Amino acid sequence: MTTTASPSADQAALAAVDEARAALVSDVGSHDVGDYLGPIVEDELVVTHLFACTRAGYVGWHWSVTVAHVPGDDAPVTVDEVVLMPGAEAIVAPAWVPYRDRIEPGDLSPGDLLPVADDDPRLVPTYAFGDDPLDADAKAQVRQVAQDLGLGRIRTLSPEGFDLAAERWYAGSGGPSAPLAQAAPDQCHSCGFLVRLTGHLAAHFGVCANGDANDDGRVVSMDHGCGAHSEVRLAKKHEPKPLPEPVFDTLTVDEVESF
């Protein structure tokens, strides 16, 4: 690493390489300190001196020693801080991802709680959007009751919530791009085991009710499919071969022992 110092930097702070190294060695020991890498001018009176780090496991890291100098011929250079910093090629921990953003479907165990934020864009007050699709008059009644009495669900899915769910389901294992669907003889929209949803997603999704299918009890898209389709039939060459006619055994035990 090589740095270029600003001409306006304090010359005493720039020249304090030995003082910076001495402070570093005093703090971490000489065995972890490598070559001098150059200065970084933080301010007119503040300079950071960089030294290579030779500590095992810290490839690409460097020591950063910041010094300051108060103007005056007899004023000493003071050491502000000594820290270990990662360089461009350093191995560092991945960026922190909050727990709420890390959790995935299937991660919850019995007893775990996953609160939903009050301002979650996937949900809206029921009185503002209505509940499950009803006719216009019934929707108005639902909104009025929920608003006046607080009955029913407090919140329901917003248009954004419906869109996110549809995109997630369609791209998942119950969508048309799943390997199972790609090899299926037909699609779910024509399967007798499909239980159609009601509401906003009814035109595109249903629930599989075939206990022999991989997707039993799961949401599937209308253009999903699998080999357990209700109308699938085996080709004649795949049908079980008929058993041969039984043969009546006329031999007796006495006849067998006589051989």
In the CATH hierarchy, the third-tier topology of the largest domain is known as Nuclear Transport Factor 2, Chain: A
Structural class: alpha+beta
Radius of gyration: 37 Å
Tell me the number of strands.
9
List SSEs in N-to-C order.
Answer: HHEEEEHEHHEHHEEEH
Indicate the overall shape: elongated
> How far apart lie the N and C ends?
99 Å
- Give the low-confidence spans: none
Question: What proportion of the residues is helical, as a percent range?
Answer: 10-25%
> How many domain units?
3
Mean pLDDT: 81
Q: Tell me which CATH architecture of the largest domain applies here.
A: Roll
Strand arrangement, major sheet = 1-2-3-4
Strand content: 15-25%
Tally of helical segments: 8
Specify the biggest β-sheet: 4 strands, antiparallel
CATH secondary-structure class of the largest domain: Alpha Beta
Q: If you had to describe this structure to a student in words, what would you say it looks like?
A:
The protein has 259 residues and is of the alpha+beta class. The chain has three domains: 76 residues, Nuclear Transport Factor 2, Chain: A; 43 residues, no CATH class; 73 residues, no CATH class. 23% of the residues lie in helices and 21% in strands. It is built from eight helices and nine strands. A four-stranded antiparallel β-sheet has the order 1-2-3-4. The protein has a three-stranded antiparallel β-sheet with strand order 7-8-9. A two-stranded antiparallel ribbon has the order 5-6. It is elongated. The termini are far apart. The model has no long low-confidence stretch (mean pLDDT 81).
